[in-house]
Amino acid sequence: MGEDRQQGAVSLLLLCMLLVVMVFSFGLLYFIRAGQQANDSYACETRLRLAAESMVELVALRIEQNPQLPSSWPEDKVVDIKLAAMHLAEVAPPEGVAWKAGGIKRRDKLYLLGYAKNNRNKKPWEECRLVKGEMQKVGERYVWLGWAP
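Above: the chain's sequence. Below: its structure in C-alpha cell form.
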C-alpha cells in the first residue's frame, strides 16, 4: 500500500511538471508570434515609407529637370500631381502598394507630398505612410532642401 502511494505521488509530480512545461511552451509560442507580427508590421511600414519617399524623389527630380512644371500650381493649395504630366506614368509602384504625389506651392518653396498605402491590407484600418519633401526656388531653378517634418 505504501508503494502505491509513492507511485501515485511520483505520477502527480510528473503531471505537474508536464503542466508547467506546457505553460512555458505556450508562453514561448505567444512571445514568438508577437515578435513575428511586430517584425511584419515594421517591414510593411518601412516598405510604405520607402515607396512614398521614392515618389517624392522622382517628382523632385522631374522638377529639377523642368522648373516650369509647378508654375501652374495655385498658391497655398494642395495639388494632386498627375504622374502622366510629370512623365512618371511608366514608373510602377512596388508590388502591393498604391501611391500618389501631391504638392503645395508657398512663395518661393515647394512642399512635395508622397503617399503610399498597402493594397493587400486585411486589417480594419488603412496602412499608409505620408512623407513631405521641401524644395526652394533659387533663380529660375528649384533646389532640393531635404525632408520636412
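The helical segments are 2-65.
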